[in-house]
Design brief:
Layout (H helix, E strand, L loop, with lengths): L2 H9 L6 H12 L3 H13 L13 E7 L2 E6 L5 E2 L16 H9 L4 H8 L3 H17 L9 E9 L28 E9 L4 E3 L1
Antiparallel strand pairs: 1-2, 2-3, 4-5, 5-6
Helix pairs in contact: 5-6
Length: about 200
């Protein structure tokens, strides 16, 4: 807000009723859902903040945009924020992101999540894919200390393929051969004692 507008805005405070003043104070003291989401995003991104263009860590604050702190890279002059170059970049309605994450954890369908949050189903679908893409990037480089590994065999899925290499089967079908066969794919999961997990 420009300074002149701020002065005019402050001058109107004397016209507020007692109830309006109390409501304004409560609004200023309380954090909105978007504030909580932005604070969480920036606290996670702050230690690893680098310019997505030149990968330099030499940047300074450069105002705010869309509720996020904006930075300017000193070497290349590009501006960026904590979400630039991530799957969450350019998504709107940040105030609903934490609630949508709860819907994902509760295994809610796209339509159920959209109905619960009051957004369009296409928005919920887009968010689901972006959130899941972001989760795939959060992988440790290596495991430390004592690690345990186990394998899991699942039937190979050709969902979305135009030309199947086998007869179509209903969801959750069975393999034609008993035991481990070429119809199954192996997923190896390893985890150390600190909770870091890798899958292959």
């Amino acid at each position: 807000m420009q300074h002149a507008k701020w002065i005019r805005f402050i001058a109107q405070f004397s016209q507020l009723s007692r109830r309006q003043r109390q409501a304004g104070i409560a609004r200023l003291r309380g954090n909105t859902p978007q504030d909580a989401t932005v604070a969480l995003l920036e606290s996670v991104a702050q230690p690893h903040l680098v310019c997505p263009a030149c990968h330099s860590s030499h940047a300074h604050r450069h105002g705010h945009a869309h509720g996020l702190q904006r930075y300017r890279c000193v070497p290349c002059g590009r501006t960026f924020n904590a979400l630039t170059g991530t799957p969450l970049a350019r998504l709107r309605h940040k105030s609903l992101w934490l609630a949508y994450a709860d819907c994902l954890l509760a295994s809610a369908s796209v339509r159920q999540a959209a109905r619960q949050l009051g957004v369009h189903r296409n928005t919920a679908f887009r968010w689901r894919h972006r959130f899941l893409t972001l989760a795939r990037t959060d992988r440790p480089l290596c495991l430390h200390g004592i690690a345990e590994a186990d394998e899991l065999y699942l039937l190979e899925s050709e969902k979305g393929s135009r030309h199947l290499t086998r007869p179509a089967r209903r969801r959750g079908g069975h393999a034609r051969q008993r035991g481990i066969s070429s119809e199954q794919v192996c997923i190896l999961v390893a985890r150390d004692r600190t909770g870091q997990t890798l899958d292959f």
